[in-house]
Design brief:
The chain has 143 residues and is an alpha/beta fold. The protein is 38% helix and 13% strand. The strands form two sheets. A three-stranded parallel sheet has the order 3-4-5. The protein is elongated and about 55 Å long. The protein starts with a strand and ends in a 19-residue tail after the last strand.
Length: 143
């Protein structure tokens, strides 16, 4: 058996065989998964968001207490950015695989690209950018 080739990469035979033989697959995804869709990562040298922005002024409870409109604007910008991109081939492949195997996805990504591709996500380890809640009482925003 030879390596399976896709448009941009080769999947090693051992990986293909492991997935083919599995009843259940656990997927742990992170920034690279959504970067392929155009969502900027946080830590990439030169292109990561923290290269341009100070996380202590945007992504902490203290920053929110000091300047809620500024922090809300940051998150609104990020929500708009995520809404403007589409799931990529990786997201779609996992959704397709879930039709053949039991697939559990845990992701560090706060976007909804796995779900938009058709996957169920067991855990968003850093939450969801779209799961807004009251900063005082933690009541979720109802849409």
């Amino acid at each position: 058996m030879t390596d399976v080739e896709t448009e941009s990469m080769t999947i090693p035979d051992k990986v293909v065989d492991a997935v083919r033989g599995a009843r259940r697959v656990l997927v742990l995804s992170g920034a690279g998964m959504s970067a392929e869709s155009g969502v900027p990562t946080f830590r990439d040298a030169q292109t990561g968001l923290w290269e341009e922005f100070d996380p202590s002024q945007l992504a902490t409870a203290e920053a929110f207490r000091l300047d809620p409109p500024f922090v809300w604007a940051w998150y609104a910008w990020r929500m708009q950015l995520v809404r403007g991109v589409e799931p990529n081939d990786g997201h779609r492949a996992l959704a397709e695989l879930a039709g053949l195997r039991e697939v559990t996805i845990s992701t560090q990504n706060v976007d909804d690209l796995h779900e938009r591709a058709g996957s169920a996500v067991a855990a968003h380890l850093h939450g969801s950018i779209f799961a807004l809640r009251c900063s005082d009482c933690e009541t979720p925003l109802r849409r």
